[in-house]
Amino acid sequence: MNSIRPGRFSRRAAEQMLDGVPGSGRAGRDPLASVLAAAAAPPRDTERAGEDAAVTAFLAEHLVPSYQPRRGQMIKSPLAKLLTIKAGALALAVSAGGVALAASTGAFTPAPHVHGAASASSAGGHAKIAGHAAARAAARSVHVRAAASGHAIPMLPAPLSAADAVKACRGLASEVHASVTHADSSTVQVLTETGVQKALQSTALRQVLINNPRLASLVATAESRDNVADYCGLLLHLAKLPAPGSLAKLPATVLSALPASVVSLIPASALTAVPAADLSRLPADFLSRLSGPVLTSLPASVLAKLPAGTLTALLPKLPGATLAQLPPKTLAGLLTRLPAKSVTGILTKLPAGSLSRILPRLPASLRSALPRSLLAGLPSSLLSQLP
Length: 387
Known about the structure:
Helix content: 55-70%
Distance between the termini: 117 Å
């Protein structure tokens, strides 16, 4: 609200008062004129004593800009605007040269305790400036890094559960089928296993994964677009994997995260086309959860990776050709875990050459329990060397 009442000052009188023109007629009887006259007077020596501390404190408090919302009624009077501008200029000049009025009240008295307070204020002000500068520098650094990246870093999609991944894989197959046949994906009926397998083998699969953001979580679960086809093949228990030569590229973390209920239903035919070298690179905890029929179809080099307990239980079910390919030391060590009857059944599957390499590694107590019919086919030279 404008507190200057009209009629009290003319524009000319206000100009004369602010400029300190003699004879303005108010210096002796108007408090404002007296203050302005005192402020315009040259500073005395006692007033200059606190000048440095005052300037330092002023700079410390005002160098860091702060946002102040506009409030209150704007000053519309030309005279009030003029007074405001000149008062601001006068305040700045006073801060550098001393204020007679402030000096008369002792605000800048160079007493020890006042000087100490000014120094503390100066130090605090400089600390505040430094803190603001550091914060602004850090913010600029973050802004520059974000600007350099060209876009905000997106949040990674959360991996899907096995049940949700199965739904996503079927949805993906429908999308690929629609893309290949130029049909509306919403009208695609439930695909047969052969249709799903063809869709996951299609070259259009990768483009569908790129164009459909809804499948981002499926890609995140498989940890790569290149892994999605075989990952879905395992989840859906396809008779043949879409890319058998790429199964070993599936990360161990992805294979280990598959539930046992899913792994146990993977058919043996799905792994027959996978190279033996790739199978041997699969994690042991994944292999050990495969069903018995699948395990018995695996080569010996892959079975040798299984935990001892899993492989020992599997030995009676393995064909003689696979048993013969197991390392003799490994096989002999596993046989000691089984009862004599089971050991006899396993050894009878071995050809004479393999049996000759296994028997010397078995403990005497286990050999003595073997039937004579099993040993009858061995060379007498070998039997004579047995302890």
